[in-house]
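Example (one chain per record):
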Amino acid sequence: MTDPFRLGWEEWLAFPELGLPALKAKVDTGAKTSSLHAADIEPFGPASRPKVRFTVHPLPGQTSPAINCSAPVIDRREVTSSNGESEVRYVIQTPLRIGDRTWPIEVTLTDRGAMSYRALIGRQALSDDMLVSPTVSFCQPELDYEVYHSAKLRTIVPNRALRIAILSREAQNYSTTRLVAEAERRGHEVEVIDTARVYMEINARTPQVHYDGKRLPHYDAVIPRIGASITAYGTAVIRQFETTGAFCVNGAEGITASRDKLHAHQVLARHKIGMPVTAFASSPKDTDNLIGLVGKAPIIVKLLESTQGKGVVLAETSKAAQSVISAFRGLKANFLVQQFVKESAGEDIRCLVVGGKVVAAMRRKSAGDDFRSNLHQGGTAEAVRITKEERDCAARAAKAFKLGLAGVDLLRSDDGPKVLEVNSSPGLEGIEKATGRDVAGLLFNEIEKHVRPLPARKSRKAKPAEA
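Predicted structure:
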């Protein structure tokens, strides 16, 4: 007959799948169910596969560190505590490890913030070969709260499911469906939200975002796919999400700056990033001087909010440039004039930057005699090797606009790379197909890194409370 697995009335344990490597728990055979301290409990996911997210503060009496957890819900159950109060709790199943033994148990989630122990192990979690000694503590090896302030914690904490919103008015286009598929493949819950149908409650205490008559939940991350036609309202929506504490891949400030060509070139100039010589004026009296600033014809005349190559004109002669500028002014359109880089020969390079690093690059060639290389204008694309100088230039441009995801368009000139544009909502289809790179996956790697940060090290002066 084998010896029983001995437990004291208090033991150190771990819930490895929840990212909780050390908890001091009470073992109570008088209680039927087991429970785990959980704050900010929030259900999510479809009704057929419900999940719950919650936060655990593993150190008694302290709110730091905070470990964010998620798990499938197996039940909702009414539980009566020792003081006679009843509470309906979410029930999850997760492996429990004590000593060298691991087995699955059911755990109810409740706020045990006022309790000395963050977990309670009830008799349902104990098998027949376990013997609890009510007068003995720690029959099994003791653990240490120091693990929560160790660099090793990142390798211990599992990848919890995230709740992610994609702001897009085109739910069926390639980029949006690709992002949805990648999020679901990783087990995240993702919702596509039509930006134009969002409305906001703005107040100092509880700023909220609403959609279709309901308040939207808190999202771990927001991926903006804001079209040029709704930049102003779209960036207002992003600011509201930022106010709620959601991680936005691209912030409102960067999107606004990148959409205004004049503002964008001023940002590039401020950060000393190479670009074609650019000039801007309001008065029609300055037309000749404006053309002279960028050099001899041919020159580019570009609307400030042009996208996908639309609103961009090549003026072959000074007289043609004057005519185009006069026409744009007649339409009361804002525009700038720009040096034409002849040596680029109808080609540019799109660098896809994620988290400050160039993860993919393609060369785009214009169709026929068109000087524009945009794929929307019939251009073609192929993978290309870029130089270190080009890589650094693209990364610096994305950083200047504080964009976590950016398409940086470069021209190869005789005096180095020149940034044409920084796109805050770059399409994924062309570059993924041309390069074979999993850009969507790389973006989610970056999101997960930001949303699942390593808890901060505690001060050596602070000592965790003992139960």
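Caption: The chain has four domains: 5-156, 163-257, 277-340, 343-451.
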